[in-house]
Amino acid sequence: MLYAYYLLGAAAAAFALPQDSSAVNGSLDATTYSTATKLQNINYGAFTQTATYSIANQLGYFKAYGLNVTYLQVPNSTYGYNQLLTGGYDIMTGTIDNAVNLRFNQKQPLTVTGQLDGGPELTIASIPSITSITQLKGKPLMVDSPVSGYAYILRKVLALHGLYLENGDYTFQVSLEYFSSRFPANIDKVVGSTVIRYADLVAGKLPDGTPVYATIFTYPFTSQAGDVPTAQRPNILAKISDFIQPFSSSAFTIREAALSNNAQRTLIRKFTSAMYAANQYLASPGSRKCSISAISKQLNVSTSVATSAYTSANDPITGETSSPGGNFTVNRQGLLNVIDVRSQFGGFASVPAGFNYADAILPGQGKLIDYSLRDDALKNLVSFSPSTKC
Ligand SMILES: *[C@@H]1O[C@H](CO)[C@@H](O)[C@H](O)[C@H]1NC(C)=O
Ligand SMILES: *[C@@H]1O[C@H](CO)[C@@H](O)[C@H](O)[C@H]1NC(C)=O
Ligand SMILES: *[C@@H]1O[C@H](CO)[C@@H](O)[C@H](O)[C@H]1NC(C)=O
Ligand SMILES: *[C@@H]1O[C@H](CO)[C@@H](O)[C@H](O)[C@H]1NC(C)=O
Ligand SMILES: *[C@@H]1O[C@H](CO)[C@@H](O)[C@H](O)[C@H]1NC(C)=O
């Protein structure tokens, strides 16, 4: 058979690759404000439309900060982080494991300016006929990349159930793009980002008919699965947070050089202010109805799915409102867990011996994490309240 998937066993660990304005007083209407001000364009790369983004976009926060945000769907992490480094994206949100990998393994000049979430809806989902983790024995599992943080947490949870990739207890179905440069001859299938893997899991097969069994889901796909007709509805076999907790996941990430470029810094600062204000709105119980409505509109999902997504976005352990201080501070223990899981599976193969991880995760200028832009963003909030009609 010409099956494209490279069935990956013990070899996995061997691949160390990738992946100004003045304050305005009083409540003002975003439309009024935007007509009076020329909007500045900003390119935002993201893997998923988070609740915070949905609110900022739907309820006028970006306009209130004078921004015209272009949302750019990241198709895969290699492409996404390359876009960020070369200027295609001004800012992106991606799991902090990617930034850790790129910065520590490859010395790429990326900076995390804050944490957005702790992995809401991070679950292991399967086709309906599989009802427990142990039934995954002998099965190929869909992952975006075998050396990504989500593949590592999948391995960790399966290992806690006695199943090991390195023992051949299961294999990985990986993307064509990932392996084509290494194994050009025998790969012809694609398993991509969560959007694609979700669709494949619901279908029970890849477009060419190859059966699929399980994968990792992220926000909002665990909620979306709830709306799928019973016969096809994925089973949620495990919540990652029941095994790894706390966990630091989506993080605001920029090119390090943007911090010392006034125009770029101001632009990204405004974006961060808008996201922060939208995040505060998300956290406010009084905004529940309008938040759910914004999520529903942004994702084009039913109110029941949006309500479930809203609940996970506000989860005190994993949600978008769970960062220490509620101000995008990275959960230190969560980041240590990210590093711990990655190192358990050989994910720091290019990091020099004696590397000081404890020092490397301390925030500061020129470090992985730099809060100076976040701090500026919190000092430059405009007074804006979205319409209560939603
Ligand atoms: C905002 O309000 C403060 C205090 O009332 C006032 O001093 C300031 O001039 C106002 N700013 C603008 C831009 O209206
Ligand atoms: C926003 O940006 C997009 C893409 O660059 C552009 O097509 C659109 O005209 C802009 N809208 C405004 C209101 O500036
Ligand atoms: C990532 O996405 C880009 C742009 O869509 C595509 O050209 C590339 O093949 C993909 N790479 C991987 C590693 O999946
Ligand atoms: C929204 O979802 C509905 C039903 O699932 C679909 O018919 C419609 O085309 C979608 N709209 C957009 C803009 O994607
Ligand atoms: C953000 O929250 C952290 C943790 O509670 C706190 O130490 C820090 O001072 C806060 N920073 C800002 C700018 O609000």
Characterise this structure:
The chain has 390 residues and is an alpha/beta fold. It folds into 2 domains: 4-117 and 248-383, D-Maltodextrin-Binding Protein, domain 2, CATH 3.40.190.10; 123-242, 3-Layer(aba) Sandwich (D-Maltodextrin-Binding Protein, domain 2). It is built from 15 helices and 10 strands. Helix 2 packs across helix 10, helix 6 packs across helix 13 (332-344) and helix 10 (262-283) crosses helix 15 (372-379).
Distance between the termini: 53 Å
Which ligands accompany this protein?
Answer: 2-acetamido-2-deoxy-beta-D-glucopyranose
CATH superfamily of the largest domain: Periplasmic binding protein-like II
CATH class of the largest domain: Alpha Beta
Summarize the structure.
This protein is an alpha/beta fold and 390 residues long.
Which descriptors would you attach to this protein?
single chain; alpha/beta; D-Maltodextrin-Binding Protein, domain 2; 2 domains; five-stranded mixed sheet; 36% helix; globular; binds 2-acetamido-2-deoxy-beta-D-glucopyranose; signal; SsuA/THI5; SsuA/THI5-like domain-containing protein
Lay out the secondary structure.
Elements lengths: L29 H7 L3 E7 L4 H8 L2 H4 L2 E7 L3 H10 L4 E5 H11 L3 E6 L7 E4 L13 E3 L6 H11 L11 E3 L2 H5 L13 H10 L10 E4 L3 H5 L9 E5 L10 E6 L6 H22 L4 H12 L3 H11 L18 H13 L12 H4 L11 H8 L11
Parallel strand pairs: 1-2, 1-3, 6-7
Antiparallel strand pairs: 3-10, 4-10, 5-8, 5-9
This protein binds 2-acetamido-2-deoxy-beta-D-glucopyranose (5 copies).
One 2-acetamido-2-deoxy-beta-D-glucopyranose binds next to helix 15.
